[in-house]
Design brief:
single chain, about 475 residues, alpha/beta, Protein-Tyrosine Phosphatase, Chain A, 2 domains, eight-stranded mixed sheet, about 40% helix
């Protein structure tokens, strides 16, 4: 890319990030989300979202993992597979990928230039009408859809940004819908109860389109079931139509205190079910990421793939095995350094923080055998910080509370510290603060012995800020 094009891309990205961005806005309202602008935008771009089969994925957590697993399996089967996910870790390009390769600078520049006249015209008309301009998420979502059409993908996997019913991705006409799970998150926008949130997630369900659901919450299951029935959409559910069988090692009955050596769970697992018309059973599967929840995510992806197999897609068991082995999940219980061990995880709500704590205690030998366990934590203002720190506070020796600086939604350190004083059963834990993520990241590496363990979690934005720093330090060692 020459200097002129590089400057043009910088200018286009400044315009893009200058738009309303609900990933950075503190209090977006439910009324901020509409589909009319998105429908007009893609209509004026020749409807790129209708030029390939789409798999649409919603849920509170696990969406990105399920998208990655499905995409890797489909790529292993020889299909040119686009994946659109959000948010990005380090660069916006990471949201748009084909066969695991993120979009290049030149490709992104060409897309934004191609879209610019349409966007400018729509912006001008919105000003005259006194309504909102196109948002950051609407523009980048349309760019992804256009890129997949330009590159003639065989299939595209679209991850919902927030909710489902009014999310910008919900203009698609999918071949398959996937709902990973539902728990409390984004309550200001989606509702204060899990059943209200479930209704928003279930809003991606379309007439006659199969749905694969990983939701097991007793208040969520009937919402998804009733919505699927209303739309005459075939529904296949975890623990009813398909199952994940973890293959464990160690003594499962000998769980001691939070700081003791817990039973260790193998990363191997099996799946079985009857989805898409035929029964299947696959044993000795492996994913490259710790966590029983990741095995659940993989089993959901495999069930979704079997819908496609039932529709005549050529995908073998070997494609499934290879796809799972090759899948890479950056920022999800990811080891960045060893001796000492540093792990990052993008857990950002109570359910994902609880899953992280369980994974650390039961599956990661470096954690259970560590001489000292350190946690670096930051969160967004609207999160249930007390609920997130409750499972984490009891298992770390030292917890450093900090604030990410790249996003204005970050909760101030003093507020985190005030909440921390309310955490029970953490009397043996030393709590301290650092004013920003970089100073917290450097603290976590100070005076660390080879058997010490640090985890960085609480927000995708914290991981995004510290991941490059830790990788650089690891590479320089």
């Amino acid at each position: 890319m020459n200097r002129t094009d590089s400057q043009l891309l910088d200018d286009q990205l400044k315009r893009l990030f200058g738009r309303i961005n609900y990933e950075r806005q503190n209090t977006p309202k439910a009324t901020d989300f509409k589909l009319a602008n998105m429908l007009e935008l893609v209509g004026r771009l020749d409807e790129p979202h209708l030029k390939y089969p789409v798999i649409h994925v919603a849920g509170t957590k696990g969406k990105g993992s399920v998208c990655t697993y499905m995409g890797s399996i489909l790529t292993a089967s020889g299909l040119k597979t686009g994946i659109y996910t959000s948010p990005h870790l380090e660069v916006v390009h990471q949201r748009i990928a084909i066969d695991g390769e993120i979009i290049g600078d030149q490709q992104l520049l060409e897309l934004l230039i191609r879209m610019a006249p349409v966007i400018d015209d729509m912006d001008d008309r919105s000003v005259d009408a006194g309504v909102s301009k196109l948002t950051f998420f609407e523009v980048i979502t349309a760019a992804a859809m256009l890129h997949f059409a330009n590159e003639d993908v065989d299939v595209a996997i679209l991850e919902v940004g927030m909710g489902g019913r009014l999310d910008s991705t919900n203009i698609c006409e999918p071949e398959l819908c996937v709902i990973t799970n539902v728990s409390l998150d984004h309550t200001q926008q989606l509702g204060e109860t899990v059943d209200r949130i479930a209704k928003e997630k279930a809003g991606i369900i379309k007439s006659g389109v199969p749905v694969v659901s990983g939701a097991t919450h007793p208040e969520v299951v009937p919402v998804i079931s009733e919505t699927a029935e209303l739309h005459t959409a075939p529904l296949f559910s975890m623990d009813q139509d398909f199952y994940c069988d973890s293959q464990t090692t160690g003594n499962q009955d000998s769980l001691g205190s939070p700081r003791s050596n817990h039973a260790r769970v193998s990363n191997r697992f099996g799946v079985r079910g009857k989805v898409g018309g035929e029964a299947y059973e696959i044993d000795e599967l492996e994913v490259g990421t710790w966590g029983g929840h990741q095995q659940q995510n993989a089993s959901l992806a495999i069930a979704a793939v079997h819908i496609l197999i039932g529709n005549g897609w050529s995908i073998s068991q070997e494609n499934v095995r290879m796809g799972l082995r090759r899948a890479r999940l950056e920022g999800r219980t990811e080891v960045l350094m060893r001796q000492p061990t540093v792990v990052v995880d993008m857990a950002h709500n109570v359910a994902s923080a609880t899953a992280l704590a369980d994974t650390l205690c039961s599956e990661i030998p470096e954690f259970s055998e560590a001489s000292r366990r350190r946690l670096v934590f930051a969160a967004s203002r609207e999160k249930d910080v007390e609920g997130m720190l409750l499972p984490l506070g009891a298992i770390f020796d030292e917890i450093c509370l900090t604030q990410f600086t790249s996003n204005p939604r970050g909760m101030p350190v003093q507020d985190l510290a005030r909440i921390a004083t309310q955490i029970p059963n953490s009397g043996d834990t030393e709590w301290l603060t650092r004013p920003d993520s970089r100073s917290a990241g450097l603290w976590c590496l100070e005076n660390m012995g080879e058997k010490d363990f640090t985890c960085i979690t609480g927000s995708v934005f914290l991981v995004a800020e510290l991941r490059p720093l830790i990788l650089q330090i690891a590479n320089d060692r």
